[in-house]
Amino acid sequence: MSPARPIEIPADLARPLVAIGWLVGTWQGAGEVTYPSMDEAVPFGQELVVSHDGRPFLRWDSRTWRLDDEGRLGAPLATETGFWRVPGGEAGLEGTEVELLLAHPMGYVEQYLGRAHAGKIELTTELVARSADAKEYSAAQRLYGFVQGDLLWAMDMAAVGHAMTSHASARLKKVA
């Protein structure tokens, strides 16, 4: 087993983003999506690119694809694009307040609020807005963690008549 990758924070990162700076980079891996309205869990591959340009936000671009039985990428599943921000720009005793703004091509946008603590980020939707033809979706929670050098994440969701329940999770490795 290779040693875990240490947390890396880009030297030119805007100061307010230090608590979430470990997200910066390209991450790839696999996970599983499931929900009570689905017949079975679906394995997926994911590529996540988190970048910055010196201003006080991170850019977030995530794409997922269905995986076949041999683990090869198949049909596209989900795409989300957005930005991480640190409202107020300062860390507090309870961690750093963070905001994640996401847009999805399936007709909805989300605003998450939460806290970052030493390699862990917990978020809850503050706002979900959807177009008239988008699937009913009312709330979500996300958890991101830097574990043994990898990015692990999990998402719970309340949608299509179901209360908040597990929806998706993945383990991603940082790539050069």
UniProtKB/TrEMBL annotation:
<feature type="domain" description="THAP4-like heme-binding">
    <location>
        <begin position="17"/>
        <end position="174"/>
    </location>
</feature>
<dbReference type="InterPro" id="IPR012674">
    <property type="entry name" value="Calycin"/>
</dbReference>
<comment type="function">
    <text>Heme-binding protein able to scavenge peroxynitrite and to protect free L-tyrosine against peroxynitrite-mediated nitration, by acting as a peroxynitrite isomerase that converts peroxynitrite to nitrate. Therefore, this protein likely plays a role in peroxynitrite sensing and in the detoxification of reactive nitrogen and oxygen species (RNS and ROS, respectively). Is able to bind nitric oxide (NO) in vitro, but may act as a sensor of peroxynitrite levels in vivo.</text>
</comment>
<keyword id="KW-0413">Isomerase</keyword>
<feature type="binding site">
    <location>
        <position position="135"/>
    </location>
    <ligand>
        <name>heme b</name>
    </ligand>
</feature>
<dbReference type="InterPro" id="IPR045165">
    <property type="entry name" value="Nitrobindin"/>
</dbReference>
<feature type="short sequence motif" description="GXWXGXG">
    <location>
        <begin position="25"/>
        <end position="31"/>
    </location>
</feature>
<keyword id="KW-0479">Metal-binding</keyword>
<keyword id="KW-0349">Heme</keyword>
<dbReference type="InterPro" id="IPR014878">
    <property type="entry name" value="THAP4-like_heme-bd"/>
</dbReference>
<feature type="binding site" description="axial binding residue">
    <location>
        <position position="167"/>
    </location>
    <ligand>
        <name>heme b</name>
    </ligand>
</feature>
<comment type="pathway">
    <text>Nitrogen metabolism.</text>
</comment>
<dbReference type="Pfam" id="PF08768">
    <property type="entry name" value="THAP4_heme-bd"/>
</dbReference>
<dbReference type="InterPro" id="IPR022939">
    <property type="entry name" value="Nb(III)_bact/plant"/>
</dbReference>
<keyword id="KW-0408">Iron</keyword>
<protein>
    <recommendedName>
        <fullName>Peroxynitrite isomerase</fullName>
        <ecNumber>5.99.-.-</ecNumber>
    </recommendedName>
</protein>
<comment type="similarity">
    <text>Belongs to the nitrobindin family.</text>
</comment>
